[in-house]
Design goal:
Elements: E1 2-6, H1 7-20, E2 22-29, E3 40-45, H2 63-66, E4 70-76, E5 81-83, E6 91-95, H3 97-111, H4 119-125, E7 128-133, H5 144-147, E8 157-161, E9 165-170, H6 207-214, H7 221-225, H8 231-234, E10 242-248, E11 256-262, H9 283-302, H10 313-317, H11 324-344
Parallel strand pairs: 2-6, 6-7, 7-8
Antiparallel strand pairs: 1-9, 2-3, 4-5, 4-11, 8-9, 10-11
Length: about 350
């Protein structure tokens, strides 16, 4: 069933939904951006139609709703500990197809990692339904079509926004009562069919090719470029790295809370072990790990898709202007070079 709503009707619909759901969508935060007098767009609770940013891709992904940057996991005293409480109210997230597909990736990691289910993710994910925001094509860092994440059927509502209002398709019968006597109109959501940016994902099935790629000189450029700040992975739609931190209450070191805090495989020391040993001690090593994990290791383990959804946020947030799409295309060129060399042997 389709509907066409003006701004006033959209506000009334949002007010009705908020009685039963916590509604999240991309929202603009004035003067909180990277530079002076710049804005930031991130997922947050919205109350009015005008709060929703639909014209521009958010700077940070929808994963912040389900896995916040800081999250209490349990509280402790000298004698006991208590698990933190999750939300009880259902959640509706307005998200583009790439962000919805990114949650499929996160679910496999958090809910299907060697048979272990992450309680803190699962209790959030069970509450979530998606309203798919029709995407106008993204920007010059997007390559969702190359990654096959430009389409999704995992949504309860589909929405196409304009300055005048919103068109809605209802696919989940649980939402039909919210529309009541609102004006009906045919609406079928459209998906991005082509990006300005195209990426060639390398074929890394051959073990000999992967072994040669690890020592390819292309990685060394990142020792001069990457500053290991981790901005790319914080902005990534699918990265899941975290560390834990104890927060002590007052002067008693045995009373406090343990928090899960977002971290990054790109930060020096993230993989440090006893004896101060690191597996990836240079920026080049860490970049190689991240790229090969996104474009080979994840798919080799879970078997259905690559970890990257082509949202381009990492490129947008990198202070050194390192492009993930350009990097992957370089990897593809290096793989072709390696294969040609092996064929001559």
């Amino acid at each position: 069933m389709g509907y066409t709503l003006n701004r006033q009707q959209a506000d009334a619909l949002l007010a009705a939904l908020r009685k039963d759901y916590t509604v999240y969508a991309p929202k603009r935060f004035r003067n909180q951006g990277r530079y002076s007098d710049t804005d930031i767009i991130r997922y947050a609770e919205v109350e009015r139609f005008e709060d929703i940013v639909w014209q521009t891709k958010s700077d940070y992904p929808a994963k912040e709703v389900l896995t916040p940057i800081q999250q209490a996991i349990f509280y402790f005293t000298e004698d006991e500990y208590r698990e933190s409480k999750g939300p009880r109210k259902p959640i509706l997230i307005l998200a583009r197809p790439c962000d919805i597909n990114a949650q499929h990736v996160q679910a496999r990691i958090y809910a299907g990692n060697g048979g272990y289910t992450d309680l803190y993710y699962e209790r959030m994910r069970e509450l979530v339904k998606f309203a798919m925001m029709e995407c106008g094509g993204g920007d010059d860092t997007c390559f969702c079509v190359s990654m096959g994440t430009n389409k999704t059927d995992d949504y309860s509502l589909a929405m196409k926004f304009s300055d005048d209002g919103v068109q809605v398709q209802v696919t989940d019968g649980a939402f039909a009562p919210y529309f009541g006597d609102l004006p009906q109109a045919d609406y079928t959501p459209a998906f991005v069919e082509e990006n300005e940016l195209k990426v060639t994902v390398p074929d890394l099935d051959d073990k000999e090719v992967r072994k040669a790629l690890k020592s390819h000189p292309m990685w060394q450029e990142f020792n001069a470029r990457c500053i290991s700040c981790g901005a790319c992975t914080v902005a990534c739609s699918t990265c899941t790295c975290f560390t834990t931190r104890d927060v002590i209450y007052g002067d008693n070191p045995e009373v406090g809370e343990r928090r899960r805090v977002t971290s990054s495989c790109q930060i020096a020391g993230f993989d440090q072990m006893a004896g101060q040993r690191e597996f990836r001690s240079t920026a080049a090593d860490r970049m190689r790990y991240k790229v090969l994990h996104k474009f080979h290791d994840y798919k080799a383990r879970f078997g259905d898709s690559h970890m990257c959804v082509g949202c381009g946020r990492c490129t947008h947030r990198c202070p050194e202007l390192i492009s993930i799409s350009a990097t992957v295309n370089k990897v593809s060129a290096a793989v072709d070079e390696i294969k040609a060399g092996l064929a001559k042997q």
